[in-house]
Every structure is written in C-alpha cells, then in structure tokens.
Amino acid sequence: MAVEISFSGDSLASAMLEDRDYMRQPDYYRPYMSLTAALLVVNAIVFLVECVLSSNPMRLVPDNPFFYNYFALSLEGMEHGFIWQLLTYQFMHSGLLHIFLNCWAIYVFGRALEEILGPRKFLILYFSSGVMGGLVEMLGALVWPSHFGTAVVGASAAALGLVAAFATLYPERELTLLLFFVLPVTLRAKYLLWGTALLSMFCILFPGSWLAALMGGNIAHAAHLGGMLTGIVFVRQFLQGRWSWPKRGIPSARPAAPREFAVSRAGKGKFWRSAGGQSEEELPTDEFVKNEVDPILDKISAHGIQSLTAREREILEKARSKMAKH
C-alpha cells in the first residue's frame, strides 16, 4: 500500500499556522540532511548489515541469531535487562517488503511532520511511538504469551505513530492510497487512522480469523496500536494541550457572548470590536490575535480548514490582510 498526501487547502491557514509556537521550526537549526532522510538511511544500512551477516545474504531475509537475541525486542530480553532492545528493534526488519513498507510510511508522513514540528519534537514523536509500541507488545506477551511470544522487529510502531499524529493534526486532509501499488483509493486521514486501528484490534482479538491470516501471522498488531495511541496523545496533550483533568469545585465558564469584529477600519496595528451593534472598542493586535485568531487556528489544527464557519474564515482573512499592511 502506497500513500500520497494531497496538500490542497487554504494557503491562509497554512501561512498563519506556521506562526504558532508548536508549528514552527527554529530558525537557528537547519540540518544538512533531513531527519526523515537520515532515518531511512539508517534503516537501510542496518538491514543490509543484517543481510550480509545472515546464512544466505542473497535471500535478503535476516536470520542472524546474534542480532535477534540481543537487538530484537523480546520478553526474554527484557527479563534479562536488555532495555536497549526498545530502541534497536525499531531499526531491524524481517524482509525486503517489511522494510519497504515501513520506510515508505516514514518517507510520506515524516517529511510533512518534520517540517511542521521541527527536528526535536519530530524525533521525540518518532522514538516515543516506537518505544511505547514495544512496551504494549511486551505487555501483550505477559498477558497472552501464546500469541505474543515471538521477538519483534521493525519500525512499524514508530511509522504508525507518525500516521496517527498527522491524522490527528489534519483529520480532514485527503490521502490517496495505492492498494497493492495499483488501485488508487482516496480517503480522509482520520479514516485511514481509525481503519488501521480497528484492523489491528480485530487481528489481536481474533488471531485465527481469515483476515488475520491474510495480514500475516507475524505482525505485531499490539505494537501498532501502541504507536498510534502515542501519536494521538503526543498531538492532543503535548502540542495542543487539549486534554486536562477537570478542576473540582470550579464551575465551568459560561460561553462568551457572540462578538462581531470589524478589522477593515483604518488604524495602525489596531482592531475594532463591536458587540451587537453597540459602541466600538479598540483592541491591540496582540490581544486580538490571542483571543480571536488563536482559537480559530486551534480549530484548524484539530479539525481541518473545512471545519471553519464563514465568519471564522472572514476573521482570518481580514486579520491577515490587516497585519500584512503593518
């Protein structure tokens, strides 16, 4: 399955989103090679080394027992204190198709997320998804050893963490999937995420089903779920801060009364607010952006540009035009 991201959308929203703290790459850091490309190169090098040191290098199927005993993720390794396996397993793969599919997902979604998040947050997202996916798989091995007993290799959990993060940031973004690299299918990012999650859950609950057999018997579905959950939590909690515990004893604030804004009136660096046709109040640009523009940008990042009302689009457009003049 190949994926192509369609970047159709509102250029205004894209330009304004780049001004957010969590959507901007620091100006002081410009890597010579993108981290996405570096991850692809490292995965390829490790795979080639595995193949060369295998019993039959030409088969491109790594089978060196030393690598699997010490660097693949396994419950036995965790019991022996091989904590590094939570990282090293992410760079090992069982075959050519395995590494190709994972690297393709990293390439497609990694490029977009690295540009959005910047290098530091991108690496945190990638490796935390892989580590959490591995931990969920090991938890499954403890609870259900007959189904999760084998060693785990591959970047699937990390790659699906990228997919989940992208779908959480841009749920309405249209993606074109090439099923079997032939049949094009277009769907929204949120449907790709939930479809993949449901597929993994089904294969875990019904390992003997025809669908699980079609997917393959050696797929770490629990690791996939752990990676996807990490991607969602990373965006919702650490980027958008949308999840928080309710405070006891503090009543919820009443929704603010509707306010209309007129930003076309002359005035350097100022916006004018009128409520219900009453007297106008002059607002500094910073206050206007914080109170009115930022919530709209939060809505875009959470639900996509398609979720905006006509009035919200008008506020963004007028605000952009106003600020561009000063």
Instruction: Report mean pLDDT, rounded to a whole number.
Output: 77
Encode the helix/strand succession as letters.
EHHHHHHHHHEEHHHEEEHH
Runs in which pLDDT lies below 50 for 5 or more consecutive residues are: 4-31, 245-281
What is the total domain count? 2
The tally of strands reads 6
The CATH homologous superfamily name of the largest domain equals Rhomboid-like
- Name the shape in a single word: elongated
Beta-strand percentage range: 5-15%
How large, in whole angstroms, is the Cα Rg?
24 Å
The helix-and-strand class reads mainly alpha
Number of helices: 14
CATH architecture type of the largest domain: Up-down Bundle
Distance between the termini: 48 Å
Share of helix, binned: 55-70%
Read across the widest sheet, the strand sequence of neighbours is 1-2-3
Predict the CATH topology of the largest domain: Rhomboid-like fold
**Largest pleated sheet:** 3 strands, antiparallel
In words, what does this structure look like?
This protein has 326 residues and is mainly alpha-helical. The protein has two domains: 238 residues, Rhomboid-like (Rhomboid-like fold, Up-down Bundle); 65 residues, no CATH class. Helices cover 56% and strands 9% of the residues. It is built from 14 helices and six strands. The strands form two sheets. It has a three-stranded antiparallel beta sheet. A three-stranded antiparallel beta sheet has the order 4-5-6. About 20% of the residues have low confidence.
